[in-house]
Input
Amino acid sequence: RWRAEISQAKRQMHEWHNRCRHIECKYRADGRAGARTRPGFAILWSNVETLKPAIYARPPVPVVARTFQDSDPVGRAASMVLRRNIQHQIEEGKVHRKIKQVRDDYLLYGRGVMWAVYRPKIGKVLQLNTEAEEYGEEERLEGEEVVWDFVRRSDFLHSASANWESVTWVARCVRMTQDEGVARFGGKFRRVPLSYKPERRDGANEQDKSYEVFHRAQVYEIWDIQTRKVIWMAEGYDGLLDKQDDPLSL
Output
């Protein structure tokens, strides 16, 4: 089912991706887009550079305020803690740089995508089992953070739908080395083909084995709204790599 869903989404977005590639070549004054060989005025580049600061120029300043401005020292302290926490996340999470990448995609192609990733830090502590009168390891949440990833337009997919309200799943493509995949999904990842091969423009021989260091497996992370599941599958692999209940209760 998911191979069919991914294929249908790619077919739906194929024409738009072709237009985006043409726009990118025009923006970069790349001759492959049919740009003139003689120097000219890069009007698209100039317009985009003018619009960038009007859309987004500096990191957001968080504001956390109480609804009722009465004498409430606990509420005031809580608001201050929340505001400082958000400010710290913006600074440490490199959110500003990611939003600028999203802004540039939005201005050029009409869509920019950021993906939020929740990463808990789980530690193990010794806990006394009073019934068995022995110690055992127990998992404990030691920390947590949200990491923001910029998703390239060609790596973001969703169900073929007429509007955003009727979208039933969203997905992103992540390229992984075999070692990264084994660490995440276990030994079965060794059967996943490294299907991603970046385009070569250096004129090197395609049989050059040293270029294989850049090959990656293409893994799709799918969030299915209807079944409230998160699914991981890989291109060229028969079966699912992983399937979990919604870990964030979204």
